[in-house]
Amino acid sequence: MAAKTTLQKPGILTCKKHTAASANNLTVYVNFHEEEARRLLDLFSYQTNINYTFLKMSSQNTNKRIIAEKELPRADIILGGPADNHQLLAELGLLKAYISPEADQIPDQFKSKQGFWTGIYLGPISIAVNEGLWQQEFGESSFQKPQEFIDLLNPAFKGKIVMPNPVTSGTAFTFIASIIQLWGPEKAAQYFYQLNQNVALYTEDGFTPARKIALGEYLIAVNFLHDQKLMIRNGFNLSYQIPADTGWEIGCVSIVNNAPHPAAAQKFIDFILSREAAILHRELTERIPTRNDIKANENYQSIFKFTINKEYNIFTAAAHKQDYLNFWQQSIKVKN
């Protein structure tokens, strides 16, 4: 049975605090939560007197839009989304290299050597469960919650799992790319086919699965840990488990090549990589900061304290993005 797919129409939100010339504007394509982006951009606008406009969409759709607009770019900045998406655009010549002085505080493994993209946060893929629904389904039985990705294949979870669609979501692409690299194509193909039998819904973006299980629409979500923890922080009764050898992202920021407002774009990069912006971002979210001098909310500083897939290669993922997506679609035997 093919899982359903939901589509969300992105909206443009603007901040017009000042009357300014065109050069004093900034257009941002945002790949994370709207309120999170608004708070960061409000602070930037306050400090620089630069107006902003932003468009929220999934990271895969951002890439499609940047490619479609390459002859006449409309955006200055891509904010958020996994590094493989930014790397792919860099290889297509669609990003402008810029190394901010603030990038000195970010480890080399979390940024492009050429300055095409810089990581601002990190996050592992996790499995979340709605505790209330779990009690309704399984009560006090000894039936265990999923601990590893292979556990999601249990027939008891058929129709109870929600996760993003890798065709539109960088979150889900990170998941499938890591599985393919870790397990190899034969085992990965079998896994994707079997998992698809249990998935009730593929969402367009990576955050929605956490929200849907928080609202009690589904039992289990697969997406980034920070999205799940944000729901927990907002009072929802969820638990989570980070599987061994899980995939993970470097959430990045980059400048679009031939951006309409290049000076404002560089100022924004300096701002978003700053200690002040990193502290605000940490307080707004449950993401792991990349700066060496900022601690994360749970007193861990390195993503490598998790049992992540340390061999996951974002450059390989970027180079084979379409191959991986075609492989996933063929494996599950449905068109998304």
UniProtKB/TrEMBL annotation:
One of its GO terms (molecular function) is thiamine pyrophosphate binding. Signal peptide: none annotated. InterPro entries: Ferric-bd. GO terms for cellular component: outer membrane-bounded periplasmic space. It holds the Pfam family SBP_bac_6. The keyword Ion transport does not apply. One of its GO terms (biological process) is thiamine transport. Keywords: Iron, Metal-binding, Signal. Fe cation binds at H33. The keyword Glycoprotein does not apply. PANTHER family: ABC TRANSPORTER SUBSTRATE-BINDING PROTEIN, THIAMINE-BINDING PERIPLASMIC PROTEIN-RELATED. This is Iron(III) transport system substrate-binding protein. It comes from Halanaerobium salsuginis.
